[in-house]
Amino acid sequence: MAKTVTVTLDGKTVQAQEGSTILDVAKREGIHIPTLCYTHLLRPLENCRLCVVAVEGEKQFKAACSTPVRDGMIIRTSGSDLAQTRKLLLELLLDTHYGDCVAPCSVTCPANVDIQGYLALLRHGEYLEAVRLIKEKIPMPATIGRVCPHPCESACRRHLVDEPVNINHCKRFLADFEIKSGVRILPQVPPDTGHHVAVVGGGPAGLSAAYYLRALGHGVTIFEAREKLGGMLRYGIPEYRLPKKILDWEIEGILSLGVHVRTGVVWGRDFTLDDLKKEGFGAIFLAIGAWASRKLGIVGEELEGVESGVDFLENIAAGRPVKVGRRVVVIGGGNVAIDAARSALRLGAEKVTILYRRSRKEMPASHEEIEAAEAEGVEIHLLAAPTRVLGDNGRAQQLEFIRMELGEPDASGRRRPVPVEGSETLLDADQVISAIGQYPVLLTPDQDPSMEKIPVTRWSTIGGDPRSMHTGAEMVFVGGDLFRGPMTVVAALADGRKAAYSLNRFFQTGRVEPEPLHFNISKGNLDQIDKEPFGVYKVIPRERMPELEVSQRVKNFVEVELGFDEAKAHREAERCLVCGCSAAFDCRLRELMNEFQVDWREQPSKKIHFQRVAAIDTHPVIALDPNKCIRCERCYVACQTFQCSDAIDFKDWPRFNAKCVSCGLCVDLCPTGALMERRQGRPVERLDWTSVPTHCIHCGYGCELDLKVKGQRLVWIADGRDTVPNRASTCRRGRFRAYDDHWRGQRATRPMVRENGELKEVSWGRAVEAAVQGLRAVAQKHGLTSVGALGSPRYTCEGLYLLQKWMRTRFGTPYVDTLGRKTAEAALRHALIPTERPSVVHPMSDLAQAQGILLIGERMEETNPVTVTAVRRSVRSGRTPLWSLGQLPESLRAMAAVDCGAQAKNWPQLLASLAMQYAEKIGEKAVDLLKETLGEEILEALRAAPLEAVEKNALEGVVRGMSAVGGVAVVLDLAALEGLSEPEIDHAIKAVQALVSIMKEHAKKDGSGLFLAAPYANAVGACLVGMNPKMLPGRVSFEDAEAVARLRELWDGASIPQCPALDVPEALQEGHFRALLLQDSALWQEGLPQVWESLSRLDFLVLQDNLLGPAAQWAHVVLPTAAFGEQEGIMINQEGRLLALHQALGRNGESLPDWDGISRLMAADGAAFPKSLDSVYQEWARLFFDGAVADWNKAAAEKQRLANLLAKA
Length: 1209
What we know:
Layout: E1 4-9, E2 12-17, H1 22-28, E3 52-55, E4 62-63, E5 74-76, H2 80-94, H3 104-108, H4 115-123, H5 127-135, H6 141-147, H7 151-154, H8 167-181, E6 196-200, H9 204-215, E7 219-224, H10 232-235, H11 244-255, E8 260-263, H12 273-278, E9 283-286, E10 292-293, E11 306-308, H13 309-317, E12 327-331, H14 335-346, E13 351-356, H15 367-375, E14 379-382, E15 384-392, E16 395-409, E17 415-419, E18 425-428, E19 431-434, E20 438-439, E21 476-478, H16 481-484, H17 489-509, E22 521-522, H18 550-553, H19 566-574, H20 588-595, E23 601-602, H21 610-616, E24 622-624, H22 634-641, E25 648-651, E26 653-656, H23 665-669, E27 675-679, E28 682-683, E29 690-695, E30 704-710, E31 713-719, H24 732-736, H25 740-743, E32 752-755, E33 758-761, H26 764-782, E34 787-791, H27 797-810, E35 816-818, H28 821-832, E36 852-856, H29 860-863, H30 865-876, E37 882-884, H31 890-893, E38 898-899, H32 907-922, H33 924-934, H34 936-944, H35 949-964, E39 968-973, H36 974-977, H37 982-1001, E40 1009-1013, H38 1019-1024, H39 1041-1050, H40 1064-1069, ...
Parallel strand pairs: 1-5, 6-7, 6-9, 7-8, 9-21, 11-19, 12-13, 12-19, 13-14, 22-23, 34-35, 34-41, 36-37, 36-39, 37-38, 39-40, 41-42, 42-43
Antiparallel strand pairs: 1-2, 3-4, 3-5, 10-20, 15-16, 16-17, 16-18, 24-27, 25-26, 27-28, 29-30, 30-31, 32-33, 32-43, 44-45
Helix pairs in contact: 4-5, 4-8, 4-19, 5-8, 6-8, 8-19, 9-17, 13-14, 27-43, 28-37, 32-33, 32-34, 32-35, 32-37, 33-34, 33-37
């Protein structure tokens, strides 16, 4: 038993095992010590030193990951000195880190919308999920997609290639799709918190605050002075830019969350802030906007015909009678001025002129709006300022203006306009619209005493914190134009969200806390960034927004911009350069930067030239960006000591060599975005995902995987656990090949029937009817046994059970089979649940305890790579000898003490000879056991059959080696046995079973075990549920009359065909079959090519598949099947361990789970069919467990009993 020591950890006395590190003890005690390079999979690296702690008596801080505790040690894990040291270490790490955490467009956006993320989702067709992502930051994307000035586009790095991405119009496309889809993307409102907020003002800031407050469960009432909600969105932006039906639709969505509204109530007239407090509101958010117009300050401003742009636009929006002059002059250069000018044209003005006192470059209005106004006929006089309005009989007739020139920059950074003496000019103008700015109308303390405590700025706005939106006055928050002055809608929407967050924290803690600022490092702005890499990008024209013709639009207020169609939106989203780091959401370095509040920084100095990066970034499935590498060396050490592939060379940064097996471990361990999955030539964009656990289906091991999903899209796949079975190891097949059904080939998405020689899409009803009719026609013409089914060992137990039941009970054919059935059945019969003696099969997780390993395999690096990794890891230590009777992978050859190199066809004899030699060495009882298992005749034949000298020497070496160590793991590759006959397979498996039994029972090597390495995930499960021509479900023998009778009773008295003389593949090759239902055709093409070659000779072929592969050329009916991650179900692996599959993704098109497709065939054939998975489970309960199970989902014991069939063994 390990010795314990006593240490003091942050003032607490604790007991710890001697040899434990400080970090181990701290974790056990729930004390957080930050780490970066540490992982429990590897020896401590000490490269980052972030885990430093103070140990009494030590002059320097010690690394907690590598420092063992000792008796009496006094340890301190926190303190300002440690925090400062850790922060300094992090800042030093940044010196070798070059990249962008977040794309510059998102950083520039006032609402910090994840633009790169929603463009990625748009590219992949995840439109509603893209809307959901947008609404995490702004609740009104359809509105903002029409009116936003899109400052994000000014920061777009596509400027350095051609033109910026048309971000805003992509956003509008997504929002319009939501409206047309009939599906509202809204948050799930949690239970009421009991807190209530009064939102004063129903404009964009108030609506946004209401949306996010309700999403947090707080009660909200909006107090709005006007008749309807919307503020400037409704009363300040014309219909041709923002149709009110769009605005109303988005407001309806916000109100549907449970927001209360009081309209026609004015702050100061109908209520004060004290009134709201007395009414029970726990906080107030002020967002009344900026409705007062600034005066021109010139002679004649009081004349009739002179009015403000805000009043002019509001009267139009409210439906009041509005008259316009023949010649209208608009003063100003912002969006209000442009909107007023374009609206005047639509109301019948003959000529509209805009005067602006600065240059065109400095006009605040968006350049698109300026160009649209000019296209419609609005004249713009730049560097012109009004000096007076001249009138007749009290009405404006002319406007005098003076020319300006630009002088020195003023406080805003813009060059100050200076009058040019003597340049006065007259313009005819019977209407002058002033649009030079607005400001909020604030109450005085006489109107509301609470104003005494609320800060007011010199710009007539309410002051506050721009991050928390708190005014500093008790529970009053502020946002929108009331806080900023007249600004953008997107800034107002952001203010509402920020206020909601702060209000929520205020209710939870009593403190005002703003949204956290997440650390960001940037390559710099457009002027700073290294421009050379952008020269490699192809110039792609920016998509233009289609618009109504000028002649059509100037006569009415119909929306001018028509919106992107799907093709335009996709092309534009494809132009995104993906500037932000794809690992930003799970970057460990960034997490620590946030934890220690390291300051943002721009780091425009390139580290490694892009051409050198391109030269080494050549891995087919892993993207390498050495500029982001911080030299932690986790990837390098893990590949050496855990994966044991030696596939990474490390000098300054990692480089892959030819030994890489694409396990993906380095990607999982990389704490930055230096190593990422590559898909379709670019790093996978790890959006903020949902993680769904499941099991891999690509070999018999059944590794646990986590499917990282955004919406209905598989973003990436990670190792599921750092515990058994796979212990943080995956392989190329599980990590990257699982994408196959989603990225490779043409997905089968709709049922198809061959008509006039061509496959045509039809309904499911038509497809299953055609399938049943076709199979029936062949059966009637050629007999029942002319029909059969070949199932997939990657399909679920549920689907395979129904398939064999349908074939047996309705067609009377025994021809049901699956790949890997021969070896799986032999493994069940002789190893997993043998009748002779206890099973010696061990789970692969026990391999690490072996003191010697006997490997019998071929091509295992391809068929069972995780098993090979586990063997390498055990042998690499030098303490575990390896002996091989098969053909070793290259990575193991140099490590083997014995390398026989025998082909699989020789294994039965070799294994029996090995067992015999070992038994004879142990003694008479061991020989008797072997005789009992293999039979006297086989042993006599072995004694008479001479071995090759190489084989004889190899066996002698193995026997000597096994005798010299303790527990021996015998790893048997079932894939290599697939090419042998059934008697040969039985022979080989019985021999290894006997060998291990002798070790355990007679040599007293208790740690010995048999480890089966199967090529298919569910071959064992398929045998157990009856996808076996020679056994019935539950491995019931055809000779067991009682069991067969019971099965017939459960199957409503159906007759059960007898065991056939031939296997299905053999019968197919010999021409016995005329019709076939085939699952997962690509797997059959790979696993048994001779079956593939027989398909073209069939009279009728039903293909149940998720891919339209080459077999579709012979198919008469195609039934689309859900792919990996798109359905639930169970499989049973090589160890008899149950693998639960979980659905993470929506099914593609009209594809169905494998069991549901068979169920529909059964229904079309007039058979009783299950309507749900639970119906299948209840049938299993009666079949396998002599009774019903009330709730199968909770019946874990029953599920595992199915896995090993202990009830029948």
